[in-house]
Amino acid sequence: MGSKLYEIGRFINADSLIRYIEERRHEDGGYCFVSVLNDTNVNDTYYAVKIHDLLGLEIPEREKTIEFLEKAVQPQTAVVAIAMVLEGLALLEARDLAREKSDIVFTKYNPLEDKFAVGLGGSEEFGTATPLEATYWVVKAFKAIGYEFSTDEKESIRAFVMKFRNGNGYGVKSPTTTMTYQALYTLRTLGYRPPRSPHFENCELCGDWGGFTEVPYSLPPYLEPTFYAARGLELQGEAPSCPRRHVWFIRQLQNPNGGFRRSLELGISNFQNTYRALAVLDFMERFL
């Protein structure tokens, strides 16, 4: 048993979590969050790899999963999905293969030509990816594979990200937790030092709730902003005010099948939610 799984297993049902993941792996090396469907896809496979990596577990038949991800990179593939493939391959110790596949990114994303994701396609958060979201994923993937942007590329990306600066955070009409983290991560990864944002602490819910919200002083909490707020606090070297309450919030999100949903209300499990829940527990556990 991975040491991380043992630590996180103090808070959740680890056995059902592992069953949830294992039962959704298919013969082609890919994963699908609905076990009865043979509809394996990049998103679920990426998060399955991330879950194994976080928990310190070997992914079964790694070469099959590498092959599945490699074949997923096609000219029509959305840039966020391509970025997931590159990072996933790097985590599977296939960094050289990922670098070979990285050129296709520049057909859709080229900061020197002011192309911040042509044909954005699917999104993690908003139905259709925003250019800032695409930028975050590309920068994260290139960091994973060891690709270094040129000085001009970095400056072009920085100028683009700063267009989303909104008060104490980043967003389109108002700052949001997701976009604030994505912007700060991008800037810091490129070597810039943006000022600290109080946005994450302003979205923290203690008391009866736990978790974080997308915008300050609102309800209810959801898993996505809780994940990005935890990442944001970590990025800024800050601690949550009530980690035990956040652990309580995450524990309530585990469904009987072992996976996690996004809110305290009823909802289905998926791999994205499950990885984010585990990542939040991993962060909060440091402060208990």
Question: Can you put this structure into words, describing what you see?
Answer:
- By secondary structure, the chain is mainly α.
- Helix 5 (79-91) runs antiparallel to helix 6 (95-101).
- Helices cover 49% and strands 3% of the residues.
- It has a domain at 103-192.
- The strands form two sheets. The protein has a two-stranded antiparallel sheet. Strands 3-4 form a two-stranded antiparallel ribbon.
Q: What's the arrangement of secondary structure elements?
A:
Layout: H1 3-8, H2 14-22, H3 42-55, H4 62-72, H5 79-91, H6 95-101, E1 109-110, E2 115-116, H7 131-145, H8 151-162, E3 165-166, E4 169-170, H9 177-189, H10 199-202, H11 223-235, H12 243-252, H13 271-284
Antiparallel strand pairs: 1-2, 3-4
Helix content: 40-55%
Give me the number of helical elements.
Answer: 13
The profile of the biggest β sheet is: 2 strands, antiparallel
Q: For the largest beta sheet, what order do the strands appear in spatially?
A: 1-2
Structural class: mainly alpha
Weakly predicted, low-confidence segments: none
Number of strands: 4
The radius of gyration computed from the alpha-carbon positions, rounded to a whole number of angstroms, is 18 Å
The N- to C-terminal Cα distance equals: 22 Å
SSE topology string:
HHHHHHEEHHEEHHHHH
**Averaging pLDDT over every residue, what do you get?**
93
Keywords: Repeat
Protein name: Prenyltransferase alpha-alpha toroid domain-containing protein
Pfam family, one: Prenyltrans
Domain Prenyltransferase alpha-alpha toroid: 14-79, 133-284
